[in-house]
Amino acid sequence: MHAHSHHGTATRTFAIVTLANLAYTAIEAGYGFATDSLALLSDALHNLGDVLGLGLAWAAAAIARRAPTQRHTYGWRRATLLSPLANALLLVAFAGALGWEAVRRLGEPPQVPAMPVIVVAAIGIAVNLGGAWLMRGGHSHDLNRRGAFLHLLADAGVSLAAVLAGIGMLQLGWQWLDPATALLVGAVVAASAFGLLRDAFNAAMDAVPAGLHQAQVRDWLLEQEGVCAVHHLHIWSLGAGEIAMTAHLVRAGSEGHDAFLDRLHHELDERFGINHPTLQVEFGSTCHDLHDPAPHGH
User: Fold this and answer.
1) What is the mean pLDDT of the chain?
2) To the nearest whole percent, how much of the chain has pLDDT over 70?
3) Which phi and psi (to 5°) does residue 73 adopt?
4) Domain with CATH 3.30.70.1350 in the chain
């Protein structure tokens, strides 16, 4: 029941933030074309990329609610890992396009009315900070929400740069600030995309989730009562906030086996956030009598 409530809230949040950003992007693009401001147009293009990314995250959060089937036994929760990967690739593509156009315009910056740039960009700060505030809950352990959260914070920073550029054009007549701001947008996008792209790729490749160390989990398992060896330990992310683990334990004595497993399951969740462990246990009389099994293929 808790999981359904969590996914339902996430879906509503993505819907609200996506639609608000889509409306703002349309307004900003309209003013950008009307004033021939590359700062507004580039920010609108950046926001459009983020709207597409937020749309992917929204869709992933909705798909993740689908129940498991006989074919997809884990359900569709991994959609929340694939969405940030596509999101990061979109950011990289937009960064290149924005940077190219900004460099082209630096030589002959057009005359841009500064006041519309200031007003529209200031609205963008409010919209993006409001969206980031909605996304703040759970973003530290949910890669899908983290991607959207980082996008919105970056967008707020870019809009602030556009406001400052508008003030500079208004007070000093520095028209080059318009394409220079667009160039800054491209740099910010590329920088924010790198970390997200790395984390999303690692998650898609079933890497051990960030912040978890396989060696620490192995050492903790070896400290448990009667455990002589740990083999075939694998840890990976199933989706937002869900971490799976499989391990083969060699244990001396089978006393209290059920209680032993229950305690391990509970403490793996409490200590490491591993909430889908699967443990295979081999028994013997004492550790001295047990020998490490030969490695075998899967």
Assistant:
1) 78
2) 83
3) -70, -20
4) 214-284
Q: Tens of pLDDT along 240-261?
A: 668 899 999 999 877 788 899 9
Nearest to 132 by CA among 156, 149, 147: 149
Kindly report, residue by residue over 182-218, the tens digit of the pLDDT. 787 777 777 777 777 888 888 878 889 888 899 999 9
The CATH topology of domain 2-204 is Alpha-lytic protease prodomain-like (1.20.1510)
Segments of the chain assigned to CATH 1.20.1510.10: 2-204
User: What is this structure's pTM?
Assistant: 0.59
Q: What is the mean pLDDT of residues 156-173?
A: 83
**Sign of the CA dihedral with 245 first, then 199, 88, and 37 last:** positive
| Nearest partner of 171 among 115, 132, 130, 218, judged by Cα | 115
Q: What is the pLDDT of residues 266-288, one digit of tens each?
A: 999 999 999 899 999 988 766 76
CB–CB of 250/284 below 8 Å? yes
* pLDDT at res. 1: 39
Q: Are 123 and 24 in contact (CB under 8 A)?
A: yes
Q: In the CATH scheme, what is the code of domain 214-284?
A: 3.30.70.1350
CA distance 180 to 99: 9
